[in-house]
């Protein structure tokens, strides 16, 4: 049953990605995209409920589960955007990324990494806030992609349908900045709770594992964005920076999280 739900989830999200990309050029595809998202979201919600019942807790103990939750939350936020702003063409930019991340996670280990006796409130805060932070960073990069696409359309002077559906450049620039600020609030809590958990479990605040160091790199990269923003960075440069910074997040998940040891190590 679990394998069937995973397959339906992928097919739903993949179909929605294709339909929403098509909707950037032909608006009639949007309803097909929305229907496919609903199918995928229902299937993934069913999978998560099934997994939670089996584990007796929310599924977040492995990188596979963590990415599933990250994808699920991203799609829920997209679903809410479509309910309240159906004309905003986020789907053609967001869903292909979430679908690729979901697909990439299928090769990851389902083994439990942290022994159950080490779980606690601090670890739950650490894991939960990391998910919200990375979703915010993902959405910021999506608005930055949308910004660069609208900017390119303006320069080409041969605009397509989605040009008229996208918000103004100023609005997308501001949205990206606000999402990064929100993400940094969550990610700071992630790091602090992780440091306190390490002290509680290992009696040291910082383990200097690859994951710890790379997470600090991600945090510093986004701090630098906020500093540059305060110094007057706007528009194209800020959008390129936000997209590049999210690549550090992807590396943190699929390279550092998989191939390097420590309590964040996930055996493939």
TrEMBL record:
The chain crosses the membrane at residues 6-25, 32-50, 62-81, 88-105, 125-148, 179-198, 204-228, 240-263. It comes from the Bacteria. Residues 63-264 form the Cytochrome c assembly protein domain. It is a multi-pass membrane protein. GO terms for biological process: cytochrome complex assembly. It comes from Sulfobacillus benefaciens. This is Cytochrome C assembly protein. InterPro entries: Cyt_c_assembly, Cyt_c_biogenesis_CcsA/CcmC. Pfam families: Cytochrom_C_asm. The lineage of its organism: Bacteria, Bacillati, Bacillota, Clostridia, Eubacteriales. One of its GO terms (molecular function) is heme binding. It is found in: Membrane. GO terms for cellular component: plasma membrane. Keywords: Cytochrome c-type biogenesis, Membrane, Transmembrane, Transmembrane helix.
């Amino acid at each position: 049953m679990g394998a069937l739900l995973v397959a339906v989830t992928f097919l739903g999200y993949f179909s929605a990605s294709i339909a929403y990309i098509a909707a950037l050029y032909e608006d009639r595809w949007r309803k097909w995209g929305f229907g496919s998202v609903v199918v995928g979201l229902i299937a993934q919600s069913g999978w998560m409920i099934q997994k939670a019942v089996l584990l007796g807790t929310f599924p977040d103990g492995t990188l596979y589960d963590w990415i599933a939750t990250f994808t699920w939350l991203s799609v829920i936020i997209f679903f809410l955007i479509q309910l309240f702003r159906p004309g905003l063409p986020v789907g053609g930019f967001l869903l292909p990324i979430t679908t690729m991340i979901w697909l990439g996670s299928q090769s990851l280990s389902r083994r439990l990494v942290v022994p159950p006796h080490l779980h606690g409130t601090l670890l739950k805060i650490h894991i939960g806030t990391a998910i919200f932070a990375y979703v915010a960073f993902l959405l910021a990069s999506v608005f930055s992609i949308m910004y660069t696409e609208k900017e390119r359309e303006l320069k080409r002077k041969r605009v397509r349908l989605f040009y008229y559906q996208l918000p103004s450049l100023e609005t997308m620039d501001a949205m990206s900045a606000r999402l990064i600020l929100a993400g940094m609030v969550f990610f700071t809590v992630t790091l602090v709770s992780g440091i306190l958990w390490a002290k509680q479990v290992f009696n040291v605040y910082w383990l200097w594992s690859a994951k710890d160091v790379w997470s600090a790199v991600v945090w510093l990269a986004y701090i630098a964005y906020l500093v540059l923003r305060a110094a007057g960075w706007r528009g194209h440069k800020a959008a390129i920076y936000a997209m590049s910074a999210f690549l550090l997040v992807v590396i943190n998940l699929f390279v550092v999280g998989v191939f390097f040891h420590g309590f964040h190590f996930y055996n493939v």
